[in-house]
Specification:
By secondary structure, the chain is α+β, with helices and mostly antiparallel strands. The protein is 15% helix and 35% strand.
């Protein structure tokens, strides 16, 4: 289907002014009201609208006053409908803020017919996680409160039908440490969500996906320089309109499909079985056990464990609450290729809001030189932004926003390496850094 895009007009001064507005969050009924208003609009709605690049909270302004709009076709419909990149992004953000549980079947595939693999998953806002598959009997579970992961997996190297059992204890709440074993979801899906939210002005089309209204968004991306043949230059992301969850992602390069990820049998905020996130090893089975050194403690007990007073944000984005406090006397190196020294006296604070999460960490810097503890990895080039913080305990920091890695800020100050990482905008990262204070 061919499309003719609308003419775009940009006013830099107006865009800057809009971005500086302190816009309140949407009410819970915002999107339902918006859908009703859009449905009530006459078919002869003018086809030309002023469009602005989306930034932090700009979607709230755009959706409210109608300055962000593009007219595209609706498959199987008799008239055109409005589709706005800003509305799509804001809907995705809102869903991550409010969802309590998510479950379904996740399917990954490649260009070959035998590439398809299917997993059943469930996760909740506490950070608990379960993944079954792709083969019968294979399972991974994670208990966030205990920091314990258990798994039953076939060995890819040894083959055969034997299942190997493993238990990881003392897992850190999140980055820059390895963190929980959510290697397909939400990590892979989270990377696609970040690519969507970071895109400046993606192409949006309203579609029907598996019988449900959806948005299809086309996002240009930069291939991995180390393995360009396996990394795409285009993402096609389909977002379920009701839940705000990306339900299908197709990664392609030069028009050829490389990878597909899709969610089937999607369930949002439905009760999850009480034992969904636990797994008991069969009696007599041999279990490979490891301990990564992180212990869940109260915030008041941190100083006595690590020997220094941790840094805690005094102002967090609305809705976030401190969910996990973990400490480790020793932890592994951080950064790409383990380029940093082993970490000592680490404090990891995880804050949650729905399925969103960010993590604040501190660790002793010692006398060694440090590089970015959360660098995106081989083949990707990050572009850190140096920021000067006028308030708080930090003075200089680096902000890194990349769809290939976790948005983060890091700094070395007062003998500590400090990181803030998670589902945050640049403005939120800087505000959190400025608000850091010693606990107490």
């Amino acid at each position: 289907m061919s499309r003719t895009g609308p003419t775009t007009y940009r006013d830099p001064e107006l865009g800057t002014a809009l971005r500086e507005l302190d816009v309140p969050d949407h009410s819970a009924a915002f999107f339902a009201d918006l859908e009703r208003q859009l449905a009530a609009e006459p078919a002869r709605r003018p086809t030309r609208r002023l469009r602005l690049r989306w930034g932090f909270r700009i979607a709230a302004v755009a959706a409210s006053v109608g300055v962000v709009a593009a007219v595209v076709g609706w498959p199987r419909a008799e008239r055109t409908q409005l589709a706005s990149a800003a509305v799509v992004k804001e809907r995705v953000r809102a869903s991550l803020d409010t969802l309590r549980t998510l479950s379904g079947v996740i399917v990954t595939s490649g260009p070959r017919a035998d590439d398809e693999r299917r997993f059943r998953f469930a996760l909740d806002a506490k950070g608990d996680f379960r993944l079954d598959g792709p083969a019968p009997g294979e399972v991974i579970t994670y208990d966030a409160a205990a920091g314990v992961a258990r798994s039953a997996q076939h060995s890819a190297s040894m083959g055969g039908d034997a299942i190997f059992y493993a238990e990881r204890r003392g897992i850190a709440p999140g980055p820059p440490e390895q963190g929980p074993p959510s290697w397909i979801l939400p990590d892979a899906l989270g990377a696609y969500v970040r690519a969507l939210l970071a895109s400046g002005d993606p192409r949006v089309e309203e579609v029907v996906y598996e019988g449900r209204p959806a948005w299809r968004v086309e996002v240009d991306t930069v291939p991995n320089a180390m393995v360009p043949a396996l990394s795409g230059d285009r993402l096609e992301i389909t977002v379920d309109r009701q839940s705000g969850i990306p339900v299908r992602v197709v990664e392609s390069r030069a028009g050829a499909m490389l990878h597909e990820l899709r969610i089937e049998q999607l369930k949002v905020d439905e009760p999850v079985e009480a034992n969904a996130f636990t797994f008991s090893f069969p009696p007599g089975s041999e279990v490979i056990r490891s301990d990564e050194g992180f212990r869940r403690v109260s915030l008041a007990a941190v100083t006595g464990t690590v020997g220094y007073t941790p840094l805690v944000p005094s102002a967090v984005p609305d809705g976030y609450e401190l969910a996990e406090v973990a400490v480790a006397t020793d932890a592994g190196p951080t950064g790409t290729e383990a380029g940093n020294p082993p970490s000592r006296k680490v404090v990891s604070l995880a804050y949650r809001r729905g399925l969103d999460r960010f993590v604040v960490t501190t660790r002793l810097a010692g006398s060694a030189a440090w590089s970015d503890p959360l660098a995106s990895g081989e083949g990707y080039v990050d572009h850190p932004e140096h920021v000067t913080l006028e308030t708080g305990v930090l003075r200089d920091a680096q902000v890194v926003l990349s769809p290939h890695g976790v948005p983060h800020l890091w700094a070395v100050a007062n003998g500590l390496v400090v990181t803030i990482a998670g589902d945050l905008s640049r403005a939120e990262l800087v505000t959190l850094a400025r608000s850091l204070r010693t606990a107490g």
